[in-house]
Input
Amino acid sequence: LMGFLFVQSSITTKDYNMKTSTNLFVKRILSYAFLVAVCSVCSCSTVPVTDEPGADFRDYPLVEVEINNTATTADDYVYTTAVPCRARLINNATFTSPVPVRIRNYNLPTYPGPAVTFRATSAAAFAANAQLDLPIDGSWASFDIIGDASNVSVRDKDVVIEIIENRSAPAAGKNVVLTRKGLMVTNAPLPAVTPQIELVMNGSHYEIDDYVTLSPVYCYLRLVNHESISTPVNVRLGNYSGSVGILRFATEALIAPTPHSTVSAVTVYKTPTNSTLDLTVPGDGSIVPFYVSGEYVSTGASQGPTPSVKDKDAVIEVIDQSTSAVYGRWGTMVRLRKNANTLQAEERDRYLNALSILNASFGAFEPFINIHDEAAEYNHSFCLNPPVCSSNRQSPSFLPWHRIFLLRIEQDLQAIDPSVAIPYWRYDEPAPNVFHRDFMGRYVGGSTVTDISSSNPLFSWYTGTGPDFRRSSNYDDQLESPTIMTDIDHYIFNNSGTIVNAVNFNLLRQILEGTSHGEAHNNTGANAGWIVDFDRSPTDPLFYMLHANVDRIWAKWQSRAVGRYEPEYNVAYTPQSSFPSPPTGTAHIGSYLLDEMWPWNEQHGGGTLTITDWPLTSYAPFPITPGNVLVVPIRPRPFDAIDYRNSRLNHDVGPFINRGLGYHYDDEIFAFNTAL
Ligand SMILES: [Cu+2]
Output
């Protein structure tokens, strides 16, 4: 069935006056984006800020933190006496006046745990927050941490502190998390460790990008006090016994060329597989590189990853090879997009909390509604066959456009809480925990008002369409799923994993948009629900989990054959190249591989190609958040959306310029099965 099922609701109204007036507000709040230094192994090079017409580039502070004023973590333990700490700006040259920040614990009020209190060194009293001004010469600002003897840690790194943006303007950036660090509250100091080892993830000394998926992340070790200890140190990397998220290690991102009938020689890189790794840290202070990723068990009862539940619960331990002395533990997170129906309560609530905070500043949420509306309404970027697009939104760019669109909101959510990733709603399975009063709410027959708990952060949900979000599912959302395909995996893939229907990209995207995703929208919205209507569907928070599942199925399809991560091959994406001039064929501008996609292409006003009315765009270029510097190009093309895996921050992975978007689903291995 290729028909497009995502129909307009009969109650659609569009208030152009409202949209026009709010656009100005949105432009002011959201036209932030920035380009900053990206550190490579040995040197930092600053990417010059491009002063784009009509865009204000906004710089977030990139912050390094040290507990006990050392680069090693062997002394990152806090007791009931004050521990000296310090923070500094990495991109200090960007700023012209000291940058005010706030330090606090990461705990949600509803999930209290071990915590610490803070004081700026100049202040007298310890408190739950401390204010600091970070100097623009890059020097350290001091603060102290103290633990609570009655509330000590259960495991290492179960106390996470965070430094947040505290500049008064722009308002949208306030409280953005600039960095996090894991530590431990003990009731006794630990013995001093002589060789001071530093571990650096992602090539940068700031930790805001220290998140791993199932892709290899570049890291290195270094002897800090090499001037007093000039001998090499033989160390073993491994998982700390208290870790929740489990990691794997490798000395290199393994590379294997793979032949294929239509792709001559694609070189792939694979995920690390070693549970421990022996390395020698040079005595001269130079680095020893390695790669880390989340564990993925490929067969057996425990098939799949062992992802994190909270930030910094995946802890890399560095010990001495012969004495097992601990040289340090570094908290990171195996952050994956997970099945929404099986999230743990705290994961679920962190996601809801971040969504709610974004929505509470409605001006910061509204673009998601408007971008989607106008992209569909004005037939840009995910439309085929102009000028009939108002009744047919099928387009080759449907998948890459929504991939970038989801990253747009995911990165805004991660600016609020970096431990959040958009969960996916498997709409081919019953999802009673999704349609629950404590999560996305329940549809109760006879009313379109979605039933949610008063304690649910979404209880105060508000969009331009009004308070709450309305559904009218025509299936029992506790027992049934909205798609006629009982198992989408087995529709696109048969039981042995072979693709049976979507044998090429064009067929895949038609099945996904028309049948699979269309049924999820239509049957959940039925007649009066907002999710059925393209200009309001992003007002229902379920939208993002629905589209994460669409994206996940594409990702699984990509993983099943060679070349589907390589955008320049037809097996990965069609149409290739750029929109032809003069126009020929049927695909819309914005759909060709190398076309920049609206709205991030900054096009507005009268277009000159087949579409003459690019909508106003207040949403361009693609904004950048602290943990995702340069992960998404500022004017993304379908080309940039094909490989979703390694972060572009990982410069050293693979033989190519890394083109990944840095996220991963929890049910798909990083390297595809070459046996298929
Ligand atoms: Cu959709």
Remarks:
- The first strand starts at residue 32 and ends at 33.
